[in-house]
Amino acid sequence: MAYKTDYRKIEYLISANASWSGVTAEAVSRMRLQNRFKTGLDIARYTADIMRRDMAAYDADPANYTQSLGCWHGFIAQQKMISIKKHFGTTKGRYLYLSGWMVAALRSEFGPLPDQSMHEKTSVPALIEELYTFLRQADARELGMLFRDIDAAREAGDIARERQLQQAIENYQTHVVPVIADIDAGFGNAEATYLLAKKMIEAGACALQIENQVSDEKQCGHQDGKVTVPHEDFIAKIRACRYAFLELGIDNGIIVARTDSLGAGLTKQIAVSASAGDIGDLYNSYLDCEEVADISSLNGDVIINRGGKLMRPKRLPSNLYQFREGTGADRCVLDCITSLQNGADLLWIETEKPHIEQIAGMVDRVREVIPNAKLVYNNSPSFNWTLNFRQQVFDAWVKEGKDVSAYDRARLMSVDYDTTPLGQEADERIRTFQRDAAQRAGIFHHLITLPTYHTAALSTDNLAKEYFGDAGMLGYVKGVQRKEIRESIACVKHQNMAGSDLGDDHKEYFAGEAALKAGGSHNTMNQFAA
């Protein structure tokens, strides 16, 4: 941030306008620094460059994987990034994830909805804009505190301290980071996908995640009844997203192509095929069919040619066609290769459990065709992580010939196993899952889709239990406020977090000594200064 250079330009501008005498160059310069990103497109362009650098770093060394948590409100995203800066000193490799599930469950005007794309499509770009509004405010707040510290150092004549603070401003790292935003299945046809993609990019999204389900039959990735579309349909939507990025000048925009084929046993359409072995024919080759022996038995049936034989795809009463059992992994691999060959940058394979070798088995096959294929992976709360990993350890021990007689595989979730060698090994595998999967299974980005949905519920339950019980007010003080103070949680000064100090600064810029400020000696926020 060229604080001094900008200051001189503004000083010259103000001096050339005599009627602006009440405006100070330093105040303008500070306000400009606090509003570095003027539009969502500025954010999308800046964050796309970050993701591209991170992707190249991962290609060089899988230890450079990235992470994010799903955030359903701007305040949640803001507090997450403030916490990351506080604990790690940098936001490098940490993103935001915008979950369509949480938009449906928490941000729809209809009220809570299942993850079936029934919520207003405009709520998605609105949340992206909200996330970045709060992150930009976090920048303004933190820089504002640095500016106040500079003023105090000047008043005390502490030149060394002033220079130190000036350097901190020049090297300031923003809270604004990439967001991977869920566009579901595009909320309609390719044109609808393009229109929504533009709105999401204009709001600041540098990465769009789109899935190969049917828009009007879309289901949560961890529920049954998923229906996929032929590759040509999905490719058209990938292309629509790319056009949206290019039209808006975000040449580095990232498209994450998600395949739900592992858990999707149905398709709504039989793909168009012009010749044997083309992409439509490959898609149709996985259909569950029966050979037609007697043409006269057909009545309104669809017939396809497979190897010179007439075959009837099995059609359900819902008018959907089903795939053969056991073809999910093969279809995922084909989906991934096809998506990367047609403009996608990253892959997302939705699995039913967090098993590294299962994921790696598919990625290895994709990388035989596209060596630098990389995944975004959902470390989903829909998985029972404790049970899954205890079962994985149990099965591994059985295979190794270890004695497992002390364990009941059917009740491994029990607290009785928490401190056992099996429970401890499972926990260690969970702890290193992201690192190990990044190394073995090509996972560039690890995210948890719905964590802040669950943390909000858990913390509220704890507070309600204590406050409305015998603890009374001590339930809040001991369980919340005392922890906030002792752990230096920024929002313990909630007036400051909401912008009261920023408002006071602006009042002083605008009205000088006549400003009526909120941050005087009678402000109870001063009780948290110690």
From TrEMBL:
Write out the coiled-coil annotation as residue ranges: none
Which PANTHER family does the annotation name? BIFUNCTIONAL GLYOXYLATE CYCLE PROTEIN, ISOCITRATE LYASE/MALATE SYNTHASE
Cofactor(s) needed:
Mg(2+)
Its domain of life reads: Bacteria
Q: Name one Pfam family in it.
A: ICL
Catalytic site:
220
The UniProt transmembrane annotation reads: none
User: Reaction catalysed by this chain?
Assistant: D-threo-isocitrate = glyoxylate + succinate
Keyword NAD in record = no
Cofactor binding mode, per the note? Answer: Can also use Mn(2+) ion.
* One Gene Ontology term from the biological process aspect of the record: carboxylic acid metabolic process
For this UniProt entry, the molecular function terms from Gene Ontology, in alphabetical order, are: isocitrate lyase activity; metal ion binding
Provide the alphabetized UniProt keywords.
Lyase, Magnesium, Metal-binding
User: Which amino acids does the record list as binding Mg(2+)?
Assistant: 182
InterPro entries from the UniProt entry: ICL/PEPM, Isocitrate_lyase, Pyrv/PenolPyrv_kinase-like_dom, Pyrv_kinase-like_dom_sf
**What is the official name of this protein in its record?**
Isocitrate lyase
